[in-house]
Predict the structure.
Amino acid sequence: MTSASLADHSPTPRLSIDVVIYDGVDELDVVGPLEVFRRAAGRGASLRAALVTRTPQPTVLGAHGIGMLADAVFEPGRADVVVVPGGGWAARAATGAWAQARQGDWPALLRAAASTTGLLAGVCTGTMLLARAGLIGTRRATTHHAVLTELAATGATVLTDRVVDDGDLVTCGGVTSGIDLALWLVEREFGGSLADDVAAGMAHTRTRPTTAD
Amino acid sequence: MTSASLADHSPTPRLSIDVVIYDGVDELDVVGPLEVFRRAAGRGASLRAALVTRTPQPTVLGAHGIGMLADAVFEPGRADVVVVPGGGWAARAATGAWAQARQGDWPALLRAAASTTGLLAGVCTGTMLLARAGLIGTRRATTHHAVLTELAATGATVLTDRVVDDGDLVTCGGVTSGIDLALWLVEREFGGSLADDVAAGMAHTRTRPTTAD
C-alpha cells in the first residue's frame, strides 16, 4: 500500500481534491478533512484527495511539530476542489498561514487557480489566506473565532456558523470544524448518507451549514 | 523550529507522553491527541509528547495514506503516559492495529512498559491492542463502536462512554474521541481550565468521562 494508491483511489475519479500544505500549517486542519475525504473514497466515492505543496518539498512541518509527507506539487487547474487549511495566523507565527500571506506566493497561486477550480474551501485561518488573495471579497465566509474581526476588515460578510456554504466558496471555523466542512463537501458531491456513514465511522457528531436545513 | 524543539517543550518536562505509531495507524487517532498535548504545552503545561515507533522507522504510513514523521524509538519506562492509537482492526487490514496484535511485538513491548508507565491510554481500536497484550483484563474500558463486542470477549468490562477513566487506564471510542481523551488527560494532570482553553482553541466541544461529573 502506498500513499499514491490511496490518493488515486480510482483510475478516473470524478472529483479531484487538493489540500494545500505548507510549513506551520495546523496539522488537524489538514488531517481532519483529508481523512474524511479518504474515508469517503474507501466507501466508494469517486474522488482523489492529495496533500499538495507550492514547490517540491517532500516533508512539511506543521505548527505543532508534526511532519507530514506531501503527495504532489500544486498545479493550478488540476483539482476540482482546493482546500486551504490555516495555522499560526493569530499568533503571527514565523511559519504558517500569516507568513504565507505576507510572502505572497500562495495567494498568487490560489488566484491563478481560482478561475479553473470548481470550489474553494477555507479551513480555520486558511480563510484568511483566501481573503488576502482577494478571493472572498464581500462574500459570506467564516474563520477561526480569534480572527473573525480581521476577516470582517477584509470586507467579507462574516458569519459565525461552524460551516458556511456560499456556493463555490465554503469556509469553516477553527481546527476541528474542518472535519464538518469536509463532511459537508462529501454530502454535496456524494450525498448525505455517505457523509453520515463517514462521520459515524469517526465517532463524530456532525454540524452542517445552517443554510443546508 | 524543529520537531524536537516542540517535542521537548521545556528542559525538564513534568509529564512525558509517548504516542505509539505504526504503519496502518489511523491518522486522526494520532494527530488529534498529539495536537491537544502540544497545544497544552504551548499554553504552559510542562509536558513532552512524542510520536514513537517500535523500531527505527523515520516515516510511518497511516491507514489513509498520510505519511507521518516519527520523533523517536519507543523505550519501555521512558514515558509517564503511553497512548496507543488504533486503525484497521475491524477491517482486519494488512497493516494496522490488528496486524500489530497478530505479529505480537507491540503487545510484548507494551507489557514490558506497563509496570514502569504511570498511565496507559487506548484510543479507538488501540484499546484492542492493550486488551490483547493482557493489560486490560476485567477492567472498565471502551473502544471503537464497531468492535465493542470483541472487546467484551476479552473479558473487559465494556462501557459505551466516549471516554472511560479507570485510573491508570484511560480509553475512548472511535477516532475523534481521541481528542476528548487527550483533553481529559490534560485536565487530570494540569487542570480543567487549561483543557477547556485548548478545546476552545480547536473549536471543539468537549465530552468528559461520566465519572468526572
Q: What stands out?
A: The longest helix of chain B spans residues 27-42.
